[in-house]
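Possible regression after last week's pipeline update?

I re-ran a chain I had predicted before the update to compare outputs. Posting the input and the new output here so someone can diff against the archived version. Not blocking, just want to make sure nothing changed silently.
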Amino acid sequence: MSDPALDVVEFVLTTHFYTENRDLDENDLPPRFRQVFWSDGADDERPGGVERPLTATSESTRTATGVERPWEAVSDQLFTQRTEFSGEISLTQPEMALEWYADRAGEERIASNPTLAAALADHPDLTPPVSREDARGNIRPIQADRVWIDALLDEYFDEDEDAEMLDLVNVRAPEEIETTLDDLVLTGDQEGEIQKIVKAIEHREYLASIGLREIGKLLFVGPPGTGKTTVSRALAHELGLPFVEVKLSMITSQYLGETAKNVEKTFEVAKRLSPCILFIDEFDSVAKTRRSDEHAALKRAVNTLLKSIDDISLVRDEVLLIGATNHPDQLDAAAWRRFDEIVNFPKPDQGMRADILRVVTREMDIADFAPEEVADVTEGLTGSDLRMVLREAVLGALTEDRRTITQEDVMAAVRDFEERDNLKNMDMIEGEGAELTGAASDGGHSHDDEGHDHDH
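New output (post-update):
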């Protein structure tokens, strides 16, 4: 349970010691604190920053800590004072306050505040449980904050001139991605590849020193709904990296203008935001365009894309490239050889389906649930499909004013899902029905891979 006094004292201490110690920078501030003090254009060299001095007013303290009445939480402490006019909360005796904090804060709290880890190290009678450097490694770098990302994009890209290109790119900060790797059910191969890429990021300098620079380009292959997008986003969350997402079909759309230029600028965005993950969805659009009679400008755009992939590097540019395709059969050799690892995302087997059902229902009120029985009757369904089944079971229960769902609710939702899926693929009306079938038939389940896979 949170301690309001400890939360407020930590914030006021952090503002004091950060202001006093000029050797500290934004990456020494916990993300929840530095966002309170972020200002655009802090100097001419960076896209914004945190300017000294930092002041702990009632408003900034409330925003940073969530404590509704911050002064009331610490007014009985001998080392605190408040300026009525400005509402500033400050310290009369910083060293006493630091000792009070060190006595009450656990190792985990101190390990996520590099500013106070540094202050404790400078205190003659106190020893921090972690070093400042280790504490910096435990928190998200400022380059992954939403405020930093927005400021950088505003600085380097013109809103009017680059509007078309920026429309192609969806940039998410790690804090905006709710799904974590712990929320996912992965195959052994998927877990192995993720561990390898995590180690590659961790040891980039070593890889460069031994000449292994062509690494960190993954291709995720599998039907829709099997987790390609969700795993990529969860990896960004896990690593604390910005997630730059682009759908390749948009780049190769005939309705876009200078497509080759847009492709180049997409990779420029990723390099500017590095270290980051660049996720290119619908990669099979490359092969489709290369084989078609499309306009020459579109083919130039695809060639530019392939060259850009060749030129980007995890080791040199700190950009992890992940491509995804639902149609590996449509990729040609030129597309395949751009990737150093191919990761398969099959439809889940019976055991994985049962595990997915357990993960998705963790926060649900469900009685007598037997996930193995549901898994037995859902062969061919993806993680996205199973999530939709459970959603329908919950909604069905709510229509009967129940918040507890049962095994029968889930089985009924499975039957309803199969009926809808069959209807979706029927030629209900001659002519129009054929179009509907073609649009919806991709392994029987035409659900977007985005965010509906194995996540909790």
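Follow-up from reviewer: compared with the archived run. Residues 4-139 form one domain. Marking as no regression found.
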